[in-house]
Amino acid sequence: MNTIDKILKGSIDMHAHYGPDPFAARKVDALKGAQMACNAGMRAIVLKNHQYGTAPLATIVSEAVSGIMVVGSICLNVEAGGLNPDIVEAAVKLGTKVVWMPTQSSNYDYMHNKMRTGGISILDDKGKLLPSVENILDIAKKYGMVVATGHLPVNEAFVLVESAVNKGLAKIVATHALGWHVDTYFTIAQQLHMADLGAFVEYCFVTTIPEGGLTPKEMVAAITAIGVERCILSTDLGQANTPAPAEGMKLMIATMLNNGLTEKEIEIMVKANPARLLGFD
Protein backbone atom coordinates (compact mmCIF):
# COMPACT_ATOMS: atom_id res chain seq x y z
CA MET A 1 0.00 0.00 0.00
CA ASN A 2 1.46 3.37 -0.98
CA THR A 3 1.57 6.37 1.35
CA ILE A 4 -1.45 8.09 -0.19
CA ASP A 5 -3.67 5.02 0.13
CA LYS A 6 -2.38 4.42 3.65
CA ILE A 7 -3.47 7.91 4.70
CA LEU A 8 -6.76 7.62 2.82
CA LYS A 9 -7.66 4.41 4.65
CA GLY A 10 -9.55 5.42 7.79
CA SER A 11 -9.87 9.07 6.80
CA ILE A 12 -12.93 11.23 7.48
CA ASP A 13 -14.37 13.93 5.22
CA MET A 14 -16.37 16.27 7.45
CA HIS A 15 -17.51 18.62 4.72
CA ALA A 16 -18.74 17.53 1.28
CA HIS A 17 -21.88 17.92 -0.81
CA TYR A 18 -24.03 15.13 -2.25
CA GLY A 19 -27.32 14.80 -4.07
CA PRO A 20 -30.19 15.06 -3.92
CA ASP A 21 -29.94 18.84 -3.87
CA PRO A 22 -32.84 21.20 -4.59
CA PHE A 23 -30.80 23.88 -6.31
CA ALA A 24 -27.32 22.65 -7.29
CA ALA A 25 -26.12 19.87 -9.56
CA ARG A 26 -23.98 17.44 -7.58
CA LYS A 27 -21.30 15.07 -8.82
CA VAL A 28 -22.75 12.06 -6.99
CA ASP A 29 -25.71 11.36 -4.76
CA ALA A 30 -25.29 10.33 -1.13
CA LEU A 31 -25.54 6.61 -1.87
CA LYS A 32 -22.92 6.65 -4.60
CA GLY A 33 -20.72 8.95 -2.53
CA ALA A 34 -20.83 6.57 0.43
CA GLN A 35 -20.07 3.58 -1.80
CA MET A 36 -17.05 5.36 -3.28
CA ALA A 37 -15.79 6.41 0.14
CA CYS A 38 -16.24 2.87 1.46
CA ASN A 39 -14.39 1.39 -1.51
CA ALA A 40 -11.56 3.85 -0.85
CA GLY A 41 -11.30 2.59 2.72
CA MET A 42 -12.48 5.82 4.34
CA ARG A 43 -13.90 5.71 7.85
CA ALA A 44 -16.70 8.27 7.61
CA ILE A 45 -18.31 11.04 5.60
CA VAL A 46 -20.56 13.89 6.71
CA LEU A 47 -23.45 14.65 4.35
CA LYS A 48 -23.90 18.41 3.94
CA ASN A 49 -26.80 20.16 2.26
CA HIS A 50 -27.53 23.86 2.48
CA GLN A 51 -31.32 23.48 2.41
CA TYR A 52 -32.22 20.45 4.56
CA GLY A 53 -31.00 18.35 7.45
CA THR A 54 -29.35 15.17 6.19
CA ALA A 55 -29.68 12.85 9.21
CA PRO A 56 -32.59 10.77 7.79
CA LEU A 57 -30.70 10.38 4.51
CA ALA A 58 -27.55 9.40 6.40
CA THR A 59 -29.46 6.72 8.31
CA ILE A 60 -30.84 5.16 5.14
CA VAL A 61 -27.49 5.28 3.32
CA SER A 62 -25.75 3.74 6.34
CA GLU A 63 -28.12 0.80 6.16
CA ALA A 64 -27.40 0.36 2.45
CA VAL A 65 -23.61 0.71 2.63
CA SER A 66 -21.86 -1.24 5.34
CA GLY A 67 -18.27 -0.54 6.29
CA ILE A 68 -18.44 3.23 6.55
CA MET A 69 -20.10 5.70 8.92
CA VAL A 70 -22.41 8.21 7.24
CA VAL A 71 -23.12 11.23 9.41
CA GLY A 72 -25.99 13.70 9.25
CA SER A 73 -25.73 17.47 9.58
CA ILE A 74 -27.86 20.59 9.32
CA CYS A 75 -27.20 24.10 8.01
CA LEU A 76 -29.37 26.75 9.67
CA ASN A 77 -30.48 28.39 6.44
CA VAL A 78 -33.91 29.77 5.63
CA GLU A 79 -35.08 26.60 3.90
CA ALA A 80 -34.05 24.43 6.85
CA GLY A 81 -35.81 26.62 9.41
CA GLY A 82 -33.17 29.21 10.21
CA LEU A 83 -32.07 29.87 13.79
CA ASN A 84 -34.73 27.63 15.30
CA PRO A 85 -33.70 25.68 18.43
CA ASP A 86 -36.66 23.29 18.07
CA ILE A 87 -35.41 22.21 14.64
CA VAL A 88 -31.92 21.61 16.02
CA GLU A 89 -33.38 19.58 18.89
CA ALA A 90 -35.35 17.44 16.44
CA ALA A 91 -32.33 17.10 14.16
CA VAL A 92 -30.07 15.83 16.90
CA LYS A 93 -32.65 13.25 17.94
CA LEU A 94 -32.55 11.99 14.35
CA GLY A 95 -28.80 11.50 14.68
CA THR A 96 -27.40 14.85 13.53
CA LYS A 97 -23.85 15.42 14.76
CA VAL A 98 -22.89 18.68 13.01
CA VAL A 99 -24.73 21.99 13.00
CA TRP A 100 -23.54 24.75 10.71
CA MET A 101 -24.56 28.33 11.30
CA PRO A 102 -26.20 29.94 8.22
CA THR A 103 -24.32 29.40 4.99
CA GLN A 104 -26.12 30.49 1.83
CA SER A 105 -28.71 32.35 3.92
CA SER A 106 -26.17 34.26 5.97
CA ASN A 107 -26.35 38.02 5.79
CA TYR A 108 -22.81 37.94 4.43
CA ASP A 109 -23.69 35.60 1.58
CA TYR A 110 -26.77 37.62 0.68
CA MET A 111 -24.78 40.83 0.45
CA HIS A 112 -21.76 39.44 -1.37
CA ASN A 113 -23.19 36.71 -3.57
CA LYS A 114 -26.88 37.48 -4.02
CA MET A 115 -26.51 41.27 -3.87
CA ARG A 116 -29.55 41.70 -1.66
CA THR A 117 -30.46 42.24 1.96
CA GLY A 118 -32.49 40.05 4.29
CA GLY A 119 -29.98 37.37 5.13
CA ILE A 120 -29.61 35.88 8.61
CA SER A 121 -27.33 37.41 11.23
CA ILE A 122 -26.68 35.63 14.52
CA LEU A 123 -26.24 38.96 16.33
CA ASP A 124 -28.68 41.60 17.56
CA ASP A 125 -28.27 45.31 16.86
CA LYS A 126 -25.93 45.60 19.85
CA GLY A 127 -23.61 42.90 18.57
CA LYS A 128 -24.78 40.32 21.09
CA LEU A 129 -25.66 36.72 20.26
CA LEU A 130 -29.37 36.26 19.62
CA PRO A 131 -31.25 34.30 22.32
CA SER A 132 -32.15 31.63 19.75
CA VAL A 133 -28.48 31.07 18.99
CA GLU A 134 -27.71 30.89 22.72
CA ASN A 135 -30.34 28.15 22.93
CA ILE A 136 -28.86 26.32 19.95
CA LEU A 137 -25.44 26.36 21.60
CA ASP A 138 -27.00 24.95 24.77
CA ILE A 139 -28.53 22.11 22.75
CA ALA A 140 -25.21 21.47 21.01
CA LYS A 141 -23.44 21.24 24.35
CA LYS A 142 -26.09 18.94 25.80
CA TYR A 143 -25.79 16.46 22.95
CA GLY A 144 -22.09 16.86 22.12
CA MET A 145 -22.70 18.30 18.66
CA VAL A 146 -20.10 19.94 16.46
CA VAL A 147 -20.81 23.65 15.94
CA ALA A 148 -19.38 25.16 12.75
CA THR A 149 -19.33 28.82 11.75
CA GLY A 150 -20.79 28.24 8.27
CA HIS A 151 -20.57 31.38 6.12
CA LEU A 152 -20.58 33.87 8.95
CA PRO A 153 -18.44 37.00 8.57
CA VAL A 154 -15.41 37.28 10.79
CA ASN A 155 -17.00 39.46 13.48
CA GLU A 156 -19.99 37.11 13.87
CA ALA A 157 -17.76 34.03 13.85
CA PHE A 158 -15.66 35.49 16.68
CA VAL A 159 -18.73 36.11 18.84
CA LEU A 160 -20.05 32.62 18.13
CA VAL A 161 -16.78 30.90 19.01
CA GLU A 162 -16.25 32.99 22.14
CA SER A 163 -19.81 32.30 23.32
CA ALA A 164 -19.50 28.58 22.58
CA VAL A 165 -16.24 28.35 24.50
CA ASN A 166 -17.73 30.25 27.44
CA LYS A 167 -20.54 27.70 27.54
CA GLY A 168 -18.03 24.88 27.66
CA LEU A 169 -18.47 23.54 24.12
CA ALA A 170 -15.42 21.60 23.00
CA LYS A 171 -16.36 20.86 19.39
CA ILE A 172 -16.16 24.06 17.35
CA VAL A 173 -15.03 24.50 13.75
CA ALA A 174 -14.06 27.69 11.94
CA THR A 175 -15.45 26.67 8.56
CA HIS A 176 -13.28 26.95 5.41
CA ALA A 177 -11.09 29.64 6.94
CA LEU A 178 -9.44 30.39 3.57
CA GLY A 179 -12.75 30.36 1.73
CA TRP A 180 -12.35 32.94 -1.00
CA HIS A 181 -15.03 31.01 -2.89
CA VAL A 182 -17.66 31.78 -0.24
CA ASP A 183 -16.27 35.08 1.12
CA THR A 184 -15.33 33.62 4.51
CA TYR A 185 -11.64 34.44 4.39
CA PHE A 186 -9.89 34.75 7.74
CA THR A 187 -6.41 36.25 7.96
CA ILE A 188 -3.71 34.19 9.63
CA ALA A 189 -4.00 36.37 12.73
CA GLN A 190 -7.76 35.78 12.81
CA GLN A 191 -7.29 32.04 12.33
CA LEU A 192 -4.81 32.01 15.20
CA HIS A 193 -7.32 33.85 17.36
CA MET A 194 -10.02 31.28 16.60
CA ALA A 195 -7.64 28.42 17.35
CA ASP A 196 -6.45 30.09 20.56
CA LEU A 197 -10.07 30.37 21.66
CA GLY A 198 -10.48 26.61 21.15
CA ALA A 199 -11.85 26.15 17.63
CA PHE A 200 -10.50 23.77 15.01
CA VAL A 201 -9.63 25.67 11.85
CA GLU A 202 -10.90 23.96 8.71
CA TYR A 203 -9.14 24.04 5.34
CA CYS A 204 -11.10 22.86 2.30
CA PHE A 205 -9.43 21.42 -0.76
CA VAL A 206 -12.02 22.97 -3.08
CA THR A 207 -10.41 26.33 -2.33
CA THR A 208 -7.35 25.21 -4.31
CA ILE A 209 -9.41 24.34 -7.39
CA PRO A 210 -8.58 27.11 -9.93
CA GLU A 211 -11.73 29.13 -9.34
CA GLY A 212 -11.15 28.85 -5.59
CA GLY A 213 -8.33 31.34 -5.85
CA LEU A 214 -5.84 29.67 -3.49
CA THR A 215 -2.70 27.66 -4.09
CA PRO A 216 -1.86 24.51 -2.14
CA LYS A 217 1.30 26.20 -0.89
CA GLU A 218 -0.77 29.01 0.62
CA MET A 219 -2.95 26.45 2.37
CA VAL A 220 0.06 24.58 3.72
CA ALA A 221 1.57 27.85 4.95
CA ALA A 222 -1.62 28.62 6.89
CA ILE A 223 -1.76 25.11 8.38
CA THR A 224 1.86 25.40 9.45
CA ALA A 225 1.16 28.75 11.11
CA ILE A 226 -1.83 27.41 13.05
CA GLY A 227 -0.44 23.95 13.86
CA VAL A 228 -1.87 20.65 12.62
CA GLU A 229 -3.18 19.75 16.08
CA ARG A 230 -5.69 22.59 15.69
CA CYS A 231 -6.67 22.02 12.04
CA ILE A 232 -8.83 19.73 9.94
CA LEU A 233 -8.70 19.05 6.22
CA SER A 234 -11.97 18.55 4.31
CA THR A 235 -12.75 18.45 0.61
CA ASP A 236 -15.93 20.61 0.37
CA LEU A 237 -16.31 18.88 -3.01
CA GLY A 238 -19.30 17.43 -4.78
CA GLN A 239 -19.95 20.21 -7.29
CA ALA A 240 -20.78 18.97 -10.77
CA ASN A 241 -17.54 20.34 -12.25
CA THR A 242 -15.20 19.01 -9.54
CA PRO A 243 -14.05 15.52 -8.51
CA ALA A 244 -16.38 13.34 -6.45
CA PRO A 245 -15.56 13.80 -2.75
CA ALA A 246 -13.84 10.43 -2.27
CA GLU A 247 -11.67 11.02 -5.34
CA GLY A 248 -11.00 14.53 -4.12
CA MET A 249 -9.92 13.20 -0.73
CA LYS A 250 -7.22 11.12 -2.37
CA LEU A 251 -6.15 14.05 -4.55
CA MET A 252 -6.05 16.34 -1.51
CA ILE A 253 -3.80 13.94 0.38
CA ALA A 254 -1.43 13.65 -2.58
CA THR A 255 -1.37 17.43 -3.01
CA MET A 256 -0.62 18.07 0.64
CA LEU A 257 2.23 15.53 0.55
CA ASN A 258 3.62 17.15 -2.58
CA ASN A 259 3.55 20.54 -0.87
CA GLY A 260 5.53 19.61 2.19
CA LEU A 261 3.19 18.13 4.80
CA THR A 262 4.19 14.81 6.32
CA GLU A 263 2.16 11.62 6.51
CA LYS A 264 1.71 12.09 10.25
CA GLU A 265 0.61 15.71 9.89
CA ILE A 266 -2.03 14.86 7.30
CA GLU A 267 -3.31 11.91 9.32
CA ILE A 268 -3.86 14.19 12.31
CA MET A 269 -6.04 16.47 10.16
CA VAL A 270 -8.03 13.84 8.26
CA LYS A 271 -8.26 11.15 10.95
CA ALA A 272 -7.51 12.09 14.56
CA ASN A 273 -9.07 15.56 14.72
CA PRO A 274 -12.27 14.74 12.79
CA ALA A 275 -12.72 11.56 14.87
CA ARG A 276 -12.40 13.59 18.04
CA LEU A 277 -14.96 16.11 16.81
CA LEU A 278 -17.48 13.43 15.81
CA GLY A 279 -17.01 11.49 19.02
CA PHE A 280 -15.64 8.37 17.37
CA ASP A 281 -12.60 7.98 19.61
Question: What would you say this structure looks like, in words?
Answer:
The protein has 281 residues and is an alpha/beta fold. It has a single domain (3-278), classed as Alpha-Beta Barrel (TIM Barrel). Helix content is 43%, strand content 15%. It has eleven helices and ten strands. It has helices at residues 3-8, 30-39, 55-64, 85-93, 107-114, 131-143, 154-166, 188-197, 216-226, 245-258, 263-278; strands at residues 12-17, 44-48, 69-75, 96-100, 146-148, 172-174, 178-179, 184-185, 200-204, 231-234. The strands form two sheets. It has an eight-stranded parallel beta sheet. A two-stranded antiparallel sheet has the order 7-8. β7 (178-179) and β8 (184-185) form a beta hairpin. The longest helix has 16 residues, at 263-278. It is globular, with a radius of gyration of 17 Å. The mean pLDDT is 95.
Number of domains: 1
Multimeric status of the protein: single chain
Task: Provide the helix percentage.
Answer: 40-55%
Query: What is the mean pLDDT?
Result: 95
Question: How many helical stretches?
Answer: 11
| CATH architecture term | Alpha-Beta Barrel
What is the spatial order of strands in the main beta sheet? 1-2-3-4-5-6-9-10
Rg calculated over all Cα atoms: 17 Å
Q: What's the order of the H and E elements? A: HEHEHEHEHHEHEEEHEHEHH
> Which band does the percent of strand residues land in?
5-15%
Largest sheet: 8 strands, parallel
